[in-house]
Amino acid sequence: MAVLWDALNDVGMLTIALLLLSLAIALFYEMINGFHDTANAVAMIIYTHSMKAKYSVVMSGIMNFLGVLMGGIGVAYAIVHLLPLDIMVETNQNAALAMVYALLISAVVWNFGTWYFALPVSSSHSLIGSIIGVSATFGLLNGFDLAHSVNWTVVYKVLAGLALSPLIGVGFAFILMKLSRKYIQNPKLFKSPNDEDKKKHPSFLARMGIVATGAGVSFAHGSNDGQKGIGLIMIILIGILPNYYALNMDSHHYRITQTKDAASNLAKFYEDNSETIVQLVNEKRLISALKTNKTIAECNVEQIHSTISSVASKLNNLNSYSELSTKDRWSVRTSILCTDNFFAQAEKIYLILDKDKSDYITSQRKLLVAPIEYAPYWVIMAVALAIGIGTMIGYQRIVHTIGEKIGAKPINYMQGTVAQATAMITILLANFAHAPVSTTHILSSAVTGSMVAEPDGGVQKGTIKIILLSWLFTLPVTALLGSALYMVLNFFMK
């Protein structure tokens, strides 16, 4: 918070107003994320009367907070890197604001609308669609084609995760439910809430299964979805307060030394392998990080050795990033971004040529990007709080859809436990791959799989059709919304 306080004391009222507005929109997006996604985590608990709504929401909020706190920031920056590097090195504050407002407003509009109609649609999906729309429009407005407008390598990875995770959810839940029917001989676990007559709560085992896996889903949700909000807020802070957030001003001396050493090591790697690297550059296998015609020296693919060497030089004997001039802070950030982009390409090529060298590049890149891939604790806490508030406000609609409208019959306790366990495991595994996935998609799919596995089960085709159509339209609709908003905002904010 000290850095934020210093920044607010150093800027004008207009900048503060723009910052507060941007943060408000981002946190509102996270609240709607709570409407959709965190509500999934408490849906089973509330629907089965395993815990009172007010207690389950508090539990979910706490587990979400812990998930965000312990989940790292890999997913956050996977979202950030969906944007073209041209946007990330843009020094024009208005350009950054136009981008942020466009992608946030489009995602908020779609999420709020689908929540209103009680459709369990992915907040992640809508955000990614918005980013694609904004990125594509940015590229077209700056004179390069669609193929180069979007960071498609990252997009494909993200979309693969979004596409595969529901399939995993269906399959895994189906298998678990079949095994549960075969090996668990407790009929109470296979009763639906409406079968319990006047009982206020299900059996102890049923409650524990539902509550424990629900807590796990909340933790997993926070560790994945919460990071997306963190990534958005960091984009805002870097765009509006670059002098204070371009680099991690709280970095300890030894962290700065690690980054300096990584820069030196990559410069040495370039020197030792210059013949191969120069050939790869000449063959256009290693290309510029930027697609626009803007000339940014740090990003010149033919000068990358001097770029990374300059980082090592500027960080030498540096105790704090505050010792750098404001110009040098942004220059170091740009140099790191462009160098990392270059060596990310080299890493993939050397994975075929020499795996040991590829692994070495991987290890040095992690240390190199440390000062630009970070998140202050207050950002993490703000996101966790926003998600928790969203859950408390809007969980009812999604609870009803998950509990009664997917299956041909109301969901039973074992199905709820299986679906939540599947969602929890799938999301946590996705975190290891730094893949943003959808809690909504996974849990809805897991519920579907558990329903199909039941002897007298099945699904409500009408509901499934509506959900699938909403999933299908999320990406193109939010992309178009993001594109249109960016064009309008970019016109007025030039």
Low-confidence stretches: none
Which percent bin holds the helix content? over 70%
SS field, number of helical segments? 20
User: Biggest sheet, open or closed, and with what strands and sense?
Assistant: none
Distance between the termini: 31 Å
β-strand number: 0
Indicate how many domains the architecture comprises: 2
- Percent strand equals under 5%
Classification by helices and strands: mainly alpha
Name the helix and strand elements from N-terminus to C-terminus, one letter apiece.
Answer: HHHHHHHHHHHHHHHHHHHH
What's the rounded overall pLDDT mean? 80
Shape: globular
Query: Radius of gyration, Cα only, in angstroms?
Result: 24 Å
Topology:
Blueprint (H helix, E strand, L loop, with lengths): L1 H9 L2 H35 L5 H18 L3 H7 L4 H4 L4 H24 L6 H19 L4 H4 L2 H32 L20 H37 L1 H4 L7 H20 L1 H9 L21 H12 L10 H28 L1 H14 L8 H29 L7 H20 L6 H15 L7 H32 L2
Helix pairs in contact: 2-3, 2-6, 2-10, 2-17, 3-10, 3-17, 4-10, 6-7, 6-10, 6-20, 7-20, 9-18, 9-19, 10-17, 10-18, 12-14, 12-16, 14-15, 15-16, 18-19
What does this structure look like?
- By secondary structure, this protein is mostly helical.
- The protein folds into two domains: 2-244 and 375-492, no CATH class; 248-368, no CATH class.
- The protein has 20 helices and no strands.
- It has helices spanning 2-10, 13-47, 53-70, 74-80, 85-88, 93-116, 123-141, 146-149, 152-183, 204-240, 242-245, 253-272, 274-282, 304-315, 326-353, 355-368, 377-405, 413-432, 439-453, 461-492.
- The model has no long low-confidence stretch (mean pLDDT 80).
